[in-house]
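User: Just a sanity check before I run the rest of the batch. Below are the structure tokens for the first item. I only need the designed sequence back.
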């Protein structure tokens, strides 16, 4: 891996080949970011410029990455945290640095040319504006879903979760299923919980589900923020999935589990002539799994007669 300075003084990371494993001098957080982009593309979740990823850096990440940042005088201008004319102040994110994929960039290209396809942004002390401090070489801006990501972090931090990753993917089985199933959280949660035992372990709180909304809109950002207060995975109907996690593995694993199980359900239903499969995980079995792993199941998603607890 080569790290050279461009005309503005920032270090540009580039690889001779995508298989280069040395990655000498590459910040660990950027290596993890690049791997998730590669893994998601390999799964078929990122056609063209579909999907986006962000990572909220730790203080150590910032220290490791700081030598690559643009000099103070060459950094981008402060821009308001805004979408479609609606501005936001997110003080919980004040001073944060985040790695983000670029708007219009292909995630498949992040591993081979991260400097051109991703960037690091800094949030101002008020949590109301951002500026580019590294990357997006050649011009460009962060993902059009940036506000949704930032509001997602804000929601999880308010809930006491040390959220580090927000990941959005265009998962084909989930999108296909959303053409058949109404956007109802209880319907989706039970359908997936009862199709594969692992699901209730990965998301015992259930799924959040948003109806179709314009991508990048304030309405989608608002709805996602509200759902992420109590859920770590949200289905965007006819669009894909957005998930949060304390690590790259946690966010990727949640998306992978939901997408795989959606495919299993579709296949089982097709094999059964379009009818609901006759043998699925029962509520008693769901409870037994959560008891075994000391998980708190969302009682509102069960049908076994126990009163919901709130």
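Assistant: Here's the designed sequence for the first item:
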């Amino acid at each position: 891996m080569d790290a050279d300075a461009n005309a503005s003084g920032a270090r540009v990371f580039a690889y001779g080949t995508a298989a280069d494993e040395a990655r000498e001098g590459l910040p660990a957080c950027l290596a993890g970011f690049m791997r998730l982009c590669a893994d998601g593309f390999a799964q078929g979740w990122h056609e063209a410029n579909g999907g986006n990823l962000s990572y909220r850096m730790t203080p150590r990440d910032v220290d490791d990455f700081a030598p690559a940042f643009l000099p103070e005088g060459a950094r981008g201008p402060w821009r308001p945290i805004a979408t479609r004319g609606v501005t936001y102040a997110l003080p919980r994110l004040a001073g944060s640095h985040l790695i983000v994929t670029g708007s219009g960039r292909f995630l498949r290209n992040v591993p081979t040319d991260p400097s051109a396809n991703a960037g690091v942004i800094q949030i101002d002390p008020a949590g109301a504006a951002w500026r580019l401090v590294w990357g997006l070489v050649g011009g460009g801006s962060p993902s059009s879903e940036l506000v949704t990501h930032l509001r997602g972090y804000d929601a999880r931090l308010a809930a006491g979760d040390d959220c580090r990753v927000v990941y959005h993917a265009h998962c084909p089985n989930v999108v296909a299923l959303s053409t058949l199933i109404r956007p109802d959280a209880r319907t989706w949660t039970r359908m997936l919980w009862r199709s594969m035992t692992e699901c209730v372990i990965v998301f015992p709180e259930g799924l959040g589900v948003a109806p179709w909304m314009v991508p990048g809109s304030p309405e989608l950002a608002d709805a996602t923020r509200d759902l992420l207060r109590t859920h770590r995975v949200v289905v965007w109907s006819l669009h894909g999935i957005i998930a949060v996690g304390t690590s790259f593995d946690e966010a990727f694993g949640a998306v992978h589990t939901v997408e795989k199980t959606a495919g299993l359900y579709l296949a089982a239903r097709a094999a059964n002539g379009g009818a609901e499969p006759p043998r699925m995980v029962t509520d008693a079995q769901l409870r037994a799994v959560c008891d075994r792993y000391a998980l708190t199941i969302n009682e509102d998603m069960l049908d076994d007669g126990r009163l919901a607890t709130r």
